[in-house]
Amino acid sequence: MSSAPQCLSPPSAAEAFGEHLVSVLNHGALCLTLSIGHRTGLFDHMRDRPPATSGEIAAAAGLNERYVREWLGAMATGGIVKVDADGPRFALPAEHAACLTRAAAADNLAVFAQYIGLLGGVEDTIVAKFRTGGGVGYEHYTRFHEVMAEDSGQSVLSSLESDILPLVPGLTDHLERGIQVLDIGCGSGRILNQLATLYPHSRFTGLDLSTEAIERARAETRATGLGNVEFIQADAAELDRHVAAQQFALITTFDAIHDQADPLGVLTGIHRALESEGIYLMQDIRGSGQIHGDLEHPLGPFLYTISCMHCMPVSLARGGPGLGAMWGDPRARDYLERAGFHDIRVHQLVHDPQNNWYVATR
């Protein structure tokens, strides 16, 4: 007589969690290799190309074959590229290229993979701060402004005309006629230079604490020959030392308030610098302000990691409150009201699950 089949018991909670951690390790490693694929242009070279050997791909990209071959190993085992046994040959599927190449515009997620390697570069310093407290200055973050410029290209530049400017009714008409605009925390100036190109009758001023970022912005302005934009290297908390009261019709900040040393002081300075009925447009991270309220956030682990390893430490390094990226919508509204804004409207864009867009009137 045959015995009855034995039922397999479900994996224990510890086993299931172990499998989850294995997945985390694999995906963390893939973030580093995705960043390499973006920075070396490998994804761009593989886009719309038939299957090719590692040697052919390396030659097309002008790279070393041995490194490319090992990188392709990570891409193939991670399900990023397809591989066959003939050669072997590798291909980047069109649906993957749509999320990983520069031609993908706002959908190129490989840009954000760069943050993992960037933050890994300060891990030792952050670990020390867990023991001693204090912050970590901007100078410790190599390539930060370069990566942030690409980040803003994804979340802002690609949708500036189609989605962001229309958040303020009639704004494009005012820009076409000519107004004064200030962007605080302008970084490398890509957004302002784009606006200055689109609206030659308006005048644009960018302000940022980083000398490196301001030099990049000025270099781009010189290269394009724009005459209606200028950049100031200064602390946003000292705005009243650099701009006059009620000088600007529009002031913008793009992901710049939460990591300030004095966020409330910056917002108060913005209110002072706006004309009567002037508009403040603030992009900042979408969050509830409570960890339990962010458990279902699609980018929760990513954003809390960036906050812990960058946004909070750079504020603390300059004596700030260390709000962190996930300071949350309730606190953002409170700070805006305390700065003097009372007509505050919050928008969300379909393509941008990471940010809220605040439109506040003086």
TrEMBL record:
UniProt domain S-adenosylmethionine-dependent methyltransferase Rv2258c-like winged HTH: residue ranges: 29-102
Database matches in CDD domains: AdoMet_MTases (cd02440)
Pfam families assigned: Methyltransf_31, WHD_Rv2258c
InterPro entries listed in its UniProt record: Methyltranfer_dom, SAM-binding_MTase, SAM-dependent_MTases_sf, WH-like_DNA-bd_sf, WH_DNA-bd_sf, WHD_Rv2258c
Limits of the Methyltransferase domain: 176-286
Protein name according to UniProt: Transcriptional regulator
